[in-house]
Amino acid sequence: MITIIAAAGENNELGKDNDLVWHLPDDFKRFKKLTTGHPMIMGRKTFESFPKPLPGRLHIIITRSKKYTPKVPEGREQDVIVVNSIDAALIKASIDTTPFIIGGGEIYKLGIEVTDRIELTRVHGTFEVDTYFPEFDKTQWELVLKEKHEKDEKHKYAFTYETWERI
């Protein structure tokens, strides 16, 4: 089951200047819990936004560049694969039954047609961004889980976890 995982604002805002525009520690914990042990498909910019590869996950990077060599700490080379298409990424990810597509915006657009599930954290606010989550036809999807998280001392914005499954 291929799963997209994303956090997006009320108008599908994802981020600006290759970074998130909110800080939601509980959402980070959920991301870690869901993705650990599974391959993650991402674009080059998303990979480069991490200080280093995330532990316990294979990073499959999609880039148009045939010469791209990611900066990877010594001993972590086996945690990173570079491919040039979503199809190649899905083939590499097929070693696992639950690969995740983790962004950015262009990779979400490529992956939305082949995805079985969307784990969407809807951040309740509007934001100035340069990257957006793609619109998806909700008539082709069923909302199977909706869990609200209120604003608190650690979270400047309220948000809702939504799990969508393709019908």
UniProtKB/TrEMBL annotation:
Residues 1-166 form the DHFR domain. GO terms for biological process: dihydrofolate metabolic process; folic acid metabolic process; one-carbon metabolic process; tetrahydrofolate biosynthetic process. Keywords: NADP, One-carbon metabolism, Oxidoreductase. Its EC number is 1.5.1.3. Pfam families: DHFR_1 (PF00186). It catalyses: (6S)-5,6,7,8-tetrahydrofolate + NADP(+) = 7,8-dihydrofolate + NADPH + H(+). Pathway: Cofactor biosynthesis; tetrahydrofolate biosynthesis; 5,6,7,8-tetrahydrofolate from 7,8-dihydrofolate: step 1/1. It is an enzyme of class 1 (oxidoreductase). GO terms for cellular component: cytosol. One of its GO terms (molecular function) is dihydrofolate reductase activity. Gene3D superfamilies: Dihydrofolate Reductase, subunit A (3.40.430.10). Key enzyme in folate metabolism. Catalyzes an essential reaction for de novo glycine and purine synthesis, and for DNA precursor synthesis. PANTHER family: DIHYDROFOLATE REDUCTASE (PTHR48069:SF3). Belongs to the dihydrofolate reductase family. This is Dihydrofolate reductase. The lineage of its organism: Bacteria, Pseudomonadati, Bacteroidota, Flavobacteriia, Flavobacteriales. The gene is dfrA.
